[in-house]
Specification:
Elements lengths: L8 E3 L19 H15 L3 E8 L2 E9 L16 E2 L5 H13 L9 H4 L8 H6 L29 H7 L18 H14 L3 H11 L6 E2 L32 H4 L2 E2 L1 H12 L13 H7 L4 E3 L13 E3 L4 E5 L2 E10 L2 E8 L4 E7 L5 H16 L1 E3 L1 H22 L14 H4 L4 E5 L3 E8 L2 E6 L2 E11 L3 E6 L2 H4 L4 E7 L5 E8 L14 E4 L3
Antiparallel strand pairs: 1-13, 2-3, 2-12, 4-6, 5-6, 7-8, 8-9, 9-10, 10-11, 11-12, 14-15, 14-21, 15-16, 16-17, 17-18, 18-19, 19-20
Helix pairs in contact: 1-11, 2-6, 2-7, 5-6, 11-12
Length: 525
C-alpha cells in the first residue's frame, strides 16, 4: 500500500469546549463522525450489528449500539449491554490473571513452566526444561501458525488435560524464541497454569478476581445460556442457546472464551488506562504489572499499513500488540470467534481507549473503524480506510473466484472423478493421529465420508480428484464451508493405503490440518 498521500484525507474540526464541560470526546473526534463512519462501514460490509465505545481522560465519553443482534432482519437491536464473543481479546484476561499472581508473589514471568506444572511437556526435552511462563504468551515458541487449533475449535470436545497430554506431539517448525507465529494452544496452557496455581477453574478465577472485582457489567467468562436475551449471534451460527445444565465449557476459553458487552469492555479499558485500578481506585493489578504486559517482549514484522500510519516498529507484549502510530504508542488486540470480531485499542499518551464489537465474520469493518478513529484522535484527520479495506476485500474475493474457476478443485483444470464402490473401499478404515485422535473414513450410499471422534459436528463427504487426492466438504456449510480440506491418501509399495495428509483449501490458519499425520490402523472404520 502507498503512503498517506495516496489516500484522501478527512478533516476533523476541533470543537472549543466551555469551562467545566461534561466529559467530552477527545479533540478531533465527534459523535456525528462516529455515527457516520459506523453506518457507512455497516452498509459497505453488510455487518448485522456493531457496538462502539470511547474512553477518554478516565471517562466513558461515547457508547452506542448499531444494527441488529443477528443476521435475522427481525432480530433485536444491539445496545451497550449486548453480549458479544470477544475471541482473542480474552488473552488479555488470561495474562492479567497471571499478572495478579505475579503481584501476589506466587510466580514470576521467567519461572520455568515445569516448576509449577510438572506434567508440562513439548516435543523437545531441552525446550521443555527451558520453557518459561513468558514463552506461553509471546507467540515465539517455535510452533507453527495456529498449531493445535483443531483441538480447540471446529466442534472440538477436548478437555484441558487432554490438550496438555497432546502437547508433545505438536511439531516445532522454527527455532525456539526465533519467529513469530500466532498461537492459541499455549494460551490454553497458560489458563491451565492459572488453574494449577489457584486451585479453581480458569472460568471461576477470571470471573471472580477480574470481571466481578473490576465491576465489568454484562461480561462473563462462560458462554451465554437460555434465559440470557441480550446476546449477539455471529454469522453462520445458530441463535439457540444451550440450557445451563447442559453447557459444555469450551476448552479454548483462556485463549478466546469470554463474552462481554461494550459497557463491560469500557470498564476494562478504564482499568488498564488507570494503571490497573478501577475508576473508584480499587487495585486489580499493580501499575508495574500493567506496564509489564504492555511492554514489548517480542518483535514482529511491520504491517502493510505502516507507511500510511507512520509506523516504525511492531511488537507483542503479554497478550497485547503494540506499535508506534503517528508518533504515539498504540496498544491493541483483536479477536475473532463464532462469527464475531472484537477490537480494543489504547492510545495511552492521549488517555484514550476505543472498543469495537461486531457480529460479522470479517476483521475489515473493525479495522476500518479503529484505524479511522485512532487517526482522528492522534492527528485530527484520517485516510479513507473504508475505501482501503473495501478494495482489499473486493480484490481478495476476485482473486479467490478466479482461482476457484481456473485451477481450484472441480474446475476444468482439476475436474472431480467418479470412483466405483469397489475403488472407494481402499480408503475406508480407522485412522489415528497422535494429537487429534481417531479419524474415520466410511462408505454411506455412494459417498465416502470423513469424521473425527473428538469433533462430533465436523464431518463431510469426500469428492475424488486423481491420484488418491480428495476434497472433504464439511456438512455444516454455514459454519465450516471456509475450511474444506484437501485429503491426500498415501500408499505403501504394495499399493495399500497407509495414511492421510490434509491441507485446508482456503486460508484459515486456525484450521491447522497440515499438522495432522493420521496413520491407518484398521480397515474397519
Amino acid at each position: 500500500m502507498g503512503g498517506v498521500g495516496a489516500l484522501s484525507l478527512l478533516a476533523a474540526p476541533l470543537v472549543a469546549l466551555p469551562a467545566c464541560a461534561a466529559p467530552a470526546l477527545p479533540a478531533g473526534l465527534t459523535a456525528e463522525q462516529i455515527d457516520t463512519l459506523v453506518e457507512r462501514t455497516r452498509d459497505a460490509f453488510h455487518v448485522p450489528g456493531i457496538a462502539v465505545a470511547v474512553v477518554h481522560d478516565g471517562q466513558v465519553v461515547f457508547s452506542r449500539g448499531y444494527g441488529r443482534r443477528s443476521e435475522d432482519a427481525h432480530s433485536e437491536k444491539v445496545d451497550t449491554r449486548t453480549l458479544f464473543a470477544i475471541g482473542s481479546n480474552t488473552k488479555e484476561f488470561t495474562t492479567t490473571a497471571l499478572a495478579l499472581l505475579v503481584d501476589q508473589g506466587k510466580l514470576k514471568w521467567d519461572d520455568r513452566v515445569i516448576d509449577h506444572m510438572p506434567e508440562f511437556r513439548v516435543a523437545d526435552p531441552f525446550i521443555t526444561r527451558d520453557f518459561r511462563v513468558s514463552d506461553l504468551l509471546t507467540h515465539h515458541s517455535g510452533m507453527g501458525l495456529g498449531a493445535g487449533d483443531l483441538m480447540l475449535f471446529s466442534h472440538s470436545n477436548f478437555t484441558r488435560p487432554e490438550i496438555l497430554a497432546a502437547l508433545p506431539y505438536m511439531p516445532f517448525t522454527a527455532p525456539f524464541r526465533a519467529n513469530y507465529a500466532y498461537n492459541n494452544l499455549l494460551y490454553v496452557v497458560a489458563g491451565a497454569l492459572v488453574e494449577k496455581m489457584t486451585g479453581t477453574s480458569w472460568e471461576n478465577f477470571v470471573q471472580s478476581r477480574l470481571i466481578d472485582a473490576a465491576g465489568l457489567p454484562a461480561c462473563q467468562s462462560t458462554p451465554p445460556v437460555k434465559g440470557e436475551t441480550d446476546v449477539a449471534t455471529g454469522e453462520g451460527n445458530s441463535p439457540d442457546l444451550p440450557d445451563r445444565t447442559s453447557l459444555n465449557l469450551p476448552v479454548v476459553a483462556p485463549a478466546g472464551g469470554i463474552w462481554c458487552s461494550v459497557d463491560g469492555m469500557t470498564r476494562w479499558v478504564q482499568m488498564y488506562l488507570n494503571g490497573g485500578k478501577t475508576p473508584e481506585g480499587k487495585t486489580i493489578i499493580s501499575t508495574a504489572q500493567r506496564d509489564e504486559v504492555w511492554a514489548p517482549h517480542a518483535l514482529l514484522p511491520l504491517p502493510d499499513t505502516a507507511e500510511a500510519t507512520q509506523g516504525h516498529f511492531r511488537a507483542y507484549g503479554y497478550g497485547w500488540f503494540m506499535e508506534d502510530f503517528f508518533g504515539k504508542k498504540r496498544v491493541w488486540h483483536t479477536g475473532t470467534i463464532d462469527g464475531m470480531v472484537s477490537y480494543v485499542s489504547f492510545l495511552p499518551e492521549m488517555k484514550t481507549g476505543i472498543v469495537v464489537l461486531t457480529n460479522h465474520d470479517d476483521y475489515r469493518p473493525s479495522f476500518v473503524i479503529q484505524t479511522t478513529l485512532n487517526s482522528l484522535v492522534t492527528t485530527g484527520k484520517s485516510a479513507d480506510w473504508l475505501a482501503h479495506w473495501k478494495k482489499q476485500e473486493d480484490d481478495n474475493n476476485a482473486e479467490q473466484a478466479k482461482a476457484a474457476a481456473t485451477t481450484g478443485p472441480g474446475s476444468p483444470a482439476r475436474p472431480f472423478i467418479h470412483l466405483s464402490a469397489q475403488a472407494q473401499r481402499d480408503y475406508v478404515g480407522l485412522y489415528h493421529d497422535d494429537w487429534r485422535g481417531n479419524i474415520h473414513v466410511t462408505q454411506k450410499g455412494n459417498d465416502l465420508r470423513l469424521s473425527f471422534d473428538n469433533s462430533p459436528g465436523l464431518a463431510g463427504n469426500l469428492s475424488a480428484l486423481p491420484h488418491d487426492l480428495f476434497v472433504v466438504r464439511w456438512d455444516d456449510r454455514a459454519q465450516d464451508a471456509g475450511d474444506d480440506c484437501y485429503v491426500q491418501f498415501q500408499r505403501d509399495m504394495d499399493g495399500k493405503v497407509t495414511g492421510i495428509s490434509m491441507r485446508v483449501v482456503g486460508s484459515d490458519f486456525s484450521f491447522d490440518a497440515q499438522d495432522l499425520h493420521p496413520k491407518k490402523i484398521s480397515d474397519k472404520p
